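Reopening: DUF3147 family protein still failing for me.
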Amino acid sequence: MKIDWAALGRELTTWSWMDGAKLFLSALIIVLVTKVQVVNDKLSALLIALPLTSLLAMIWMNAEKQSNERIANHAEGTFWFVLPTLPMFLVLPWMLRKGWSFGWSLAANCLLTAILFWVTVWFLRKAGLKVI
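Support: Ran it again with your exact input. Result attached.
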């Protein structure tokens, strides 16, 4: 995957009303889920487990007239990139319950996820899939 850094820079510095709407709605969802967590952590976990971010991203992509191929690539890439993040949701609670501090647990799990991410990319390349 080749990244056009100049185009990325232009895109990041050019904002429209649609970008403001995306920012507001995405932030609103995060705030609402964290408010739900205060009352019911299980319901909050369920809401977070829903692929709201990916669904919103695909809706925004469609609204911006991006091709079905790009949206399909996004959905497929998301599937493969979620896999290496899943162990964190078992290892982090285990570490916290064993007395690790939150900061060290989070740092260790970020490292674990990064390693698993690159292992996943390596395996996918061996299988003929180029996701990055």
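The radius of gyration is 18 Å. If you still see a failure, please send the error message rather than a screenshot.
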